[in-house]
Amino acid sequence: AQSVSQHNHHVILSEAASLELGCNYSYGGTVNLFWYVQYPGQHLQLLLKYFSGDPLVKGIKGFEAEFIKSKFSFNLRKPSVQWSDTAEYFCAVSNQAGTALIFGKGTTLSVSS
Amino acid sequence: EAGVAQSPRYKIIEKRQSVAFWCNPISGHATLYWYQQILGQGPKLLIQFQNNGVVDDSQLPKDRFSAERLKGVDSTLKIQPAKLEDSAVYLCASSLRNTEAFFGQGTRLTVV
């Protein structure tokens, strides 16, 4: 069965600090990978996705993620966080046959100004 | 483009009562999902529809939960009878086949 592990439950950073959130998945086949964000009081929104091709994908708001197949990882990065990045971040995986997303438990990011 | 619509936004019921949630997906999206998100956890799939057929309901507690998607558009999720542990946010999402899912605002259910 597919599963997703997010290593950090709660991350606290100051503005302008760099961010890296870890995500590992367990699945032997070809996968689609996603990062979703949930800002306070809002619905889940897609940050970025990887289906195939360049393993370094860029998303909205300066976020990027790198797919490392050998490590089953899809870590999220941002070089300089802002207060407005305070939110909950979810890594998710599906397979290329179109199964539903399997989510990690999420990481809460708190950015202080 | 209109997003995924869900109602109600909030619901408080007593245990053993029944409750229903409604979802209207993005127009043209054949795939519809219901997820349960318990506080502090990621969303967990309850059921996936492709048009009006069920693709995956392996994690749906069928003794108390039911869902339908008549005519392949709107969907309802019902809980009867509710238990305290059903307190959660119920998320509806929709997608075109094998693409990212778009989520609604969710329904926050509190069972007391």
* First-to-last CA distance of chain A: 41 Å
Separation of termini of chain B?
37 Å
Most extensive interface, chain pair and sizes: A-B, 25 and 25 residues
Q: Roughly how many Å is the radius of gyration of chain B? A: 13 Å
DSSP, total strands of chain B: 11
**What's the helical proportion of residues of chain A?**
under 10%
Order of helices and strands of chain A: EEEEEEEEEEEE
Evaluate the radius of gyration of chain A: 13 Å
Q: What's the story with the biggest beta sheet of chain A?
A: 6 strands, mixed
Helical percentage of chain B: under 10%
Poorly predicted regions of chain B: none
Sheet with the most strands of chain B?
7 strands, mixed
Number of helix segments of chain A? 0
Mean pLDDT reading of chain A = 94
Q: What structural class do the secondary elements of chain B suggest?
A: mainly beta
Structure description:
The complex is a heterodimer of chains A (113) and B (112). In chain A, 0% of the residues lie in helices and 54% in strands. Chain A is mostly beta strands. In chain A, the strands form three sheets. In chain A, strands 2, 5, 6, 10, 11 and 12 form a six-stranded mixed β-sheet that branches. Chain A has a four-stranded antiparallel β-sheet with strand order 3-9-8-7, with no helix packed on it. In chain A, a hairpin with a 6-residue loop joins β10 (87-95) and β11. Helices cover 0% and strands 49% of the residues of chain B. In chain B, the strands form two sheets. In chain B, strands 2, 4, 5, 6, 9, 10 and 11 form a seven-stranded mixed β-sheet that branches. A four-stranded antiparallel β-sheet of chain B has the order 1-3-8-7, with no helix packed on it. The N and C termini of chain B lie far apart (37 Å). At the A-B interface, β5, β6, β10 and β11 of A face β4, β5 and β10 of B.
